[in-house]
C-alpha cells in the first residue's frame, strides 16, 4: 500500500511539473508574440513620426517659398510705383530747368515746388536716395552712365562735368544710374593738331629737295 501511494504521489508530482512546464512554455510563447506585436507597433509609430516630420518640413518649405514669392511680388509692385514717381520727379526738374526767372515767384510755381518737395520727401522716407553726380566727381560705372564726353582742361579726365539726368538708389541698390557727361583732355586734341601741322612743312621741304 505504501509503495502504491508513493507511486501515485510521484505520478501526481510529475503531472504537475509537466503542467507547469506547459504553462511556462505557453507564457513564453505569449510573451514572444507580445514582443513581436510591440516591435511592430514601434515600427509603425516610428514610421508615423517620420511621416509627420517630413510633412512638417514640407509645410515649412512651402510656407517659406510662399513668403518669398509674396515678398518678391511686393518688391516688384513697389519698384513699379517708384519708377512711376521718379518719372514725375524728372518732369518737375525739367519744368523748373526751363522756367523763366521772372516766373519763379508766382504762386502756382511755388505750389509746384511744394509738390516736388513732398514727393521727394515721400520717396526719401522709403529709402530712395539720389546718386551723387556733381561736377568733378570721379566717374563710377556702377552709379553713372556716360552718354557724352566733353573736352576740357577744367576737370580731371574721367570725371563728371555735367549731370544730364539724376540717378537714384533704393537703399544700396541702384535703381537707375545717373546720366552724365565725362571730361576728356582738350590738350590731347590740340597736341595732335599741332604735331600734324608741324610735320607738313618738313614733308614739303623734302619734296622740293
Quickly describe the structure.
It contains three helices and six strands; from the N terminus they run ααββββββα. With 209 residues, it is α+β, with helices and mostly antiparallel strands. α1 packs antiparallel against α2 (107-125).
What does this structure look like?
This protein has 209 residues and is an alpha+beta fold. It has two domains: 114 residues, no CATH class; 79 residues, Nucleotide Exchange Factor Grpe, Chain A, domain 2. 66% of the residues lie in helices and 15% in strands. The protein has three helices and six strands. It has a three-stranded antiparallel beta sheet. A three-stranded mixed beta sheet has the order 2-6-3, with no helix packed on it. α1 packs antiparallel against α2.
